[in-house]
Amino acid sequence: MNSRGRRRRRKIYVGPGAVLLLLAVIAVIVVAAVALRGCGAEDPAPAGGDDAAVGDVQPDGGQEEEQEDPENTKPEGVTTSAGVNCTLMDLGEEAIYTGELILVNNSTFFHFPENQELVSVYEEKNDSYYVGGTNVYLAPAAMDALNAMLADFTAQGGSKSVNVVAGHRTEEFQQHLFDQSVERNGLEHAQKYVAQPGGSEHHTGYALDLNIYHSDGTSEEYDGTGEYAWINDNCQNYGLVVRYATDKADITGIGNEPWHFRYVGIPHATQMVKEGLCLEEYIDYLKDFTAQGEHLMIECVSGTYEVWYAEGSAIYVPDSGEYTVSGNNVDGLIVTCKVA
Question: Which residues contact 89 (CB under 8 A, 6 or more apart)?
C-alpha cells in the first residue's frame, strides 16, 4: 500500500492517564442510570392484583387521583319521578331566608328584607268578616287564603263575627308587645306567649290572629270551638295551619294559641295535618326528600304535588309548569311542583 493508506490506518496511542479518565466517565454514567431508574420505578402493585391499581396513578408523576364525591357531582338537568324536567340553579343565599315555608321562632330569627310585599286586609277583604283596623297587612298569598276560607265559613252557615286583629308586625312593634307583656304579666308569661322581636312569625306577613267581634261592639277571645271549629278543622284546605298547639309547646316554645294561623300553602298545610307535625318538625321532615333522592308526593284539594329539598342555595328547578321555591330560613330550599 502507499504511504497515504498507511496514515489512515495508523494506531492511536492511549496513555494510562486517559484510560483512568475514561473509566471514571463510564462509572458516572452507570451511577446516573441506576439513580434515574430508581426514581421512575413504579410502586409495587397493591394487594388484589394489578387491576386494583388502575386509576391510582396519574401521568404527571404518580399523584393519587382525587375521588369525586357522588353527592357533590350533580348533572345540569334531571327528570323527576313524576316526569318534571328540571335544571340545576343557584338561587343565591338570600333565597334560603324567603318564601312561604320559612321557619321563624325564638331560635330561628327572621331575616328582615329591604322590601316586603304586603297588602292591606282592610282594602282587600270580602264582606264575610271584620278587620280590627286599617293598619293590618298580610302577604298576598295569605290574604287570598283568608278571603277564601272565611267566605266558605259563612257560606256553610258560620256567622259574620270573625275579626282579624293582627297580621304583619315590625320588629319595633314586636318589641313593644313583648315589653308590655312583661310589665303586665311577668317575664315568664311573656316568654311563653309572646315571641321575641325577630322571632315572631308575624314579621313574615304569613301569620294572622283572630278574635270574635259581636254586633253590640264587644269582643272575646277566639278559641276555635263551637261554630268556629269548622275553621280550625278545615284551614289546611286553604293553605293555613293552627301554628301553636298545646301538645307541641315544648317544640315551638309557645303555648296553645288556637287563634294564630300560619300560611304555608295548601299542599304543605295538608301534609302537616296528615302527619301531625308542627312547622319545626315539618321542616326536618322535608329534609328526608332530597333533590337527588326520593321525592314527597302530596295529594290535596288543589291537586297532586311533588316536593323536594336541597341543602344550600342550589336546587333543581322545574323548566316549566306551576311550582314554588321557598327557603326554610335554616339551611336550604324546598320546591313544590304541581304535577296533576
Answer: 314, 315, 316, 317
Average pLDDT, the chain: 85
Residue holding cell 473509566? Answer: 23
Of 257, 280, 299, 311, the active-site residue reads 257
Give yes or no: residues 259 and 282 share one domain: no
d(CA 306, CA 323): 9
Asked if 323 contacts 336 with a C-beta cutoff of 8 angstroms, the reply is yes
In angstroms, what CA-CA distances link 156 with 28, 30, 79, 153, 237?
105, 103, 43, 6, 15
CA-wise closest residue to 260 among 270, 252, 250: 252
**Three-class DSSP category at 182:** helix
| Residue 83 shares a structural domain with residue 171 | no
At which of 263, 297, 328 does a domain end?
263
93 and 120 part of one domain: no
pTM: 0.78
In this structure, what CATH number is given to the domain that contains residue 180?
A: 3.30.1380.10
Asked whether residue 80 falls in the same domain as residue 205, the answer is no
Q: What single string gives the DSSP state of each residue in 22-91?
A: HHHHHHHHHHHHHHHHHHTPPPPPPTT-GGGGTTS--TTTSPPPPPPPGGG---SEEE-TT--EEEEEE-
Note whether 270 and 239 are within 8 A (CB). Answer: no
Q: How far is CA 271 from CA 96, 225, 265, 278, in A?
A: 21, 23, 10, 11
Domain range for 298 is 74-101+276-340
DSSP 11: P
Is 257 known to be catalytic?
yes
Are 91 and 154 in the same domain?
no
Give domain status of residue 15, yes or no: no
Is residue 48 predicted with pLDDT exceeding 90? Answer: no
Secondary structure letter of residue 196 according to DSSP: P
> What grid cell was written down for 177?
308587645
Tell me how far apart the alpha carbons of residues 56 and 62 are, in angstroms, rounded to a whole number: 8
| Whether the predicted pLDDT of 169 surpasses 80 | yes
- For residues 160 and 245, membership in a common domain is answered with yes
CA distance 14 to 11: 9
The last residue of one of the domains, among 263, 284, 314, is 263
